[in-house]
Write a sequence for this structure.
């Protein structure tokens, strides 16, 4: 656009500044935003390896169960992470999981639309609602905490009301059969690499069912689509945030919206797009749960927004925005998933789940604050 | 007479019932350093924000190269060649020097939609431009938050100069600086000016203004007290004007080009 130009140095310094300490490669490599989450992940795996090493938790079947649960958290956490780095919250995401799933089911069952069309409509609606959230926040200047809290109630209420008024129930079933042969539904449910797993089973690498209807089939048929979504979103989010121009704008928008605006970053557009993206992530989770379970329930996604925020904060993001890591958030989600499933395998009282989680949250956040100060020079 | 790069005619700015600017006229010629002086709350920052597209003026006209211009946002002003280094909001502390340097104009490579920032080039240029300004960085990824206040200003100035602004607005760039860095900034202003760029230099410090200024405009309570050319006004006279213009009558003769 403009011609770069160089101004000769008024006071040229060629020598190294003697006041700058050299940082070792190792130190530079480990001092990163995800460090707290990496340590947390290692600690959690070590903990369960000691407690539940002999149980089914560390078999392929067990691993698939905690991976699937973690993947649910990852899908939501990626959206929440980018939104939080852009400086905003969305407390309506849990309700959005339930709402988008319910809309998808109602359009298919009650209105008889083809499954693929219902999915597209549900995703579009989620995007539109995300945009409304975003526009309300940037136009009114109200904290997103309040605006999206309102939407948390509104969407949950609409979910229950629409289900009851159209079907007289809060659980809409029959989605399994409806989605069975739909081309788009296949992206949201079922498994991939089934051939590979069958091949591995035939060669004795993974166990097979010995008896019953599925005798000879592998105990793990393939990788659930939700895990594919989680990995895809994770890679996309990390790439977007750290490698692209838009990612630079996301950081700037959350770091200092006024300064970003002055230097020409379209702050409102960035925020609105991030609200839409987070809603889209919630809708992906909502729709894939419906395809997976064969039904939509009005209470799906309850409290999920808070759990996602916890994952993101464990992952090193700053609650006030401008700093964070998608990889960190995904590790936070894995910690969450492993702890939740691990306590099930170890038969520990499930109430301890909360105690454990609270402790990890506290530990990770304290570690993160310390690491962040090292990196950013916050005083 | 040459056409000013930017000319502001009778600019007013009201915030609700607060009148921050009540009719300010001002111009910047290519290659001059026009100092804008005034006490706290005089309206200096508000005035340059209308120039930079942050605020739309309530009343008044703005001309760029002799043609009427309207800026809807800071981007418009930037593409018209008006670059601004703000008093307090110059850079984003949590982000790296290199990312701050390129903010809003990131160099990209690759094919759409897989375009990414060209970090190699971005880092190299940022390091080089910073060292031209006398600041040695440990690495381009170093966060701006680890720099001192003056060094942060320098990042913003280096950025504006690098992107070839036609008008460079500096809002109190020296107020947070030490002796050496102030000398650096003043020397930079001088060099920028020699390249034909118009500089608007806001300061409280009359000595800094006298060191580089070609023209001096004093704002007081949202009004201009007048514009004086270099050599037609002394430091003491400027100081008095800034202090409230009690001795205005006495000074009127020296303010040749009163608007
Ligand atoms: N967004 C705003 N809303 C309301 N009033 C404002 C706004 N911005 C500035 N003002 C008022 O306009 C007046 C001029 O402020 P301005 O920031 O331009 O002063 P200044 O000359 O830059 O002062 P300083 O030397 O302290 O930086 C002040 O009285 C201020 O309160
Ligand atoms: Mg000011």
């Amino acid at each position: 656009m403009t011609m770069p130009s160089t101004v000769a140095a008024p006071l040229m310094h060629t020598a190294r500044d003697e006041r700058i300490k050299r940082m070792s490669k190792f130190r530079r490599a480990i001092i990163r935003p995800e460090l707290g989450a990496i340590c947390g992940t290692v600690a959690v795996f070590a903990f369960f390896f000691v407690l539940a090493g002999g149980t089914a938790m560390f078999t392929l079947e067990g691993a698939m169960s905690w991976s699937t649960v973690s993947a649910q958290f990852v899908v939501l956490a990626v959206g929440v992470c980018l939104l939080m780095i852009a400086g905003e919250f969305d407390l309506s995401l849990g309700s959005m999981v339930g709402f988008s799933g319910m809309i998808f089911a109602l359009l298919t069952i009650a209105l008889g639309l083809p499954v693929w069309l219902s999915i597209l409509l549900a995703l579009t609606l989620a995007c539109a609602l995300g945009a409304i959230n975003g526009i309300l926040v940037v136009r009114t200047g109200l904290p997103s905490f309040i605006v999206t809290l309102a939407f948390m109630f509104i969407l949950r209420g609409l979910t229950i009301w629409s289900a009851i008024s159209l079907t007289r129930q809060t659980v809409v079933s029959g989605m399994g059969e409806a989605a069975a042969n739909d081309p788009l539904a296949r992206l949201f449910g079922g498994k991939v690499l089934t051939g590979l797993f069958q091949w591995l089973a035939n060669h004795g690498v993974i166990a097979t069912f010995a008896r019953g209807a599925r005798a000879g089939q592998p105990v793990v048929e393939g990788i659930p689509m939700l895990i594919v979504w989680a990995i895809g979103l994770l890679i996309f989010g990390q790439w977007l945030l750290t490698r692209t121009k838009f990612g630079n704008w996301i950081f700037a928008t959350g770091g200092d919206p006024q300064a970003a605006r002055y230097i020409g970053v379209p702050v409102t557009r960035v925020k609105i797009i991030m609200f839409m993206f987070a809603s889209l992530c919630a809708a992906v989770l909502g729709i894939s749960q419906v395809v997976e379970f064969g039904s939509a329930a009005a209470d799906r996604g309850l409290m999920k927004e808070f759990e996602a925020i916890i994952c993101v904060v464990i992952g090193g993001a700053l609650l006030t925005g401008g700093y964070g890591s998608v990889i960190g958030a995904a590790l936070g989600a894995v910690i969450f998933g492993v702890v939740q499933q691990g306590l099930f395998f170890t038969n520990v009282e499930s109430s301890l789940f909360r105690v454990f989680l609270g402790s990890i949250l506290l530990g990770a956040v304290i570690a993160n604050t310390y690491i962040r100060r090292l990196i950013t020079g916050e005083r | 007479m040459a056409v000013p790069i930017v000319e502001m005619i009778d600019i007013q700015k009201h915030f609700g019932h607060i009148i921050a600017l009540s009719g300010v006229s001002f111009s910047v010629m290519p290659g001059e350093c026009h100092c804008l002086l005034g006490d706290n709350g005089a309206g200096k920052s508000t005035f340059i924000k209308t120039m930079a597209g942050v605020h739309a003026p309530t009343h008044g006209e703005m001309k760029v190269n002799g043609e009427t211009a309207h800026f809807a946002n800071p981007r418009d002003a930037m593409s018209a060649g008006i670059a601004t280094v703000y008093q307090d909001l110059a850079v984003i502390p949590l982000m790296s020097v290199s990312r701050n340097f390129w903010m809003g104009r990131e160099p990209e490579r690759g094919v759409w939609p897989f375009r990414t920032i060209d970090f190699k080039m971005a880092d190299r240029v940022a390091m080089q431009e910073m060292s031209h300004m006398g600041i040695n960085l440990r690495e381009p990824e170093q966060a701006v938050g680890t720099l001192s206040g003056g060094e942060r200003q320098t990042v913003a100035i280096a950025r504006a100069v690098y992107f070839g602004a036609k008008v460079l607005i500096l809002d109190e760039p020296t107020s947070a600086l030490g002796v050496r860095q102030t000398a650096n900034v003043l020397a930079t202003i001088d060099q920028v000016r020699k390249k034909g760029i118009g500089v608007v230099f806001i300061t409280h410090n009359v000595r800094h203004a006298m060191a580089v200024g070609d023209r001096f405009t004093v704002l007081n309570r949202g009004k201009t007290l007048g514009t004086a050319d270099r050599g037609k006004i002394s430091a003491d006279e400027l100081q008095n004007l800034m202090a409230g213009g009690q001795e205005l009558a006495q000074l009127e003769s020296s303010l040749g080009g009163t608007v």
Notes: Residues 1-15 of chain A have pLDDT under 50 and may be disordered. Chain A touches chain B through 44 residues (CB under 8 Å). Residues 38-49+58-366 of chain A form a domain with the ABC transporter involved in vitamin B12 uptake, BtuC fold (CATH 1.10.3470).
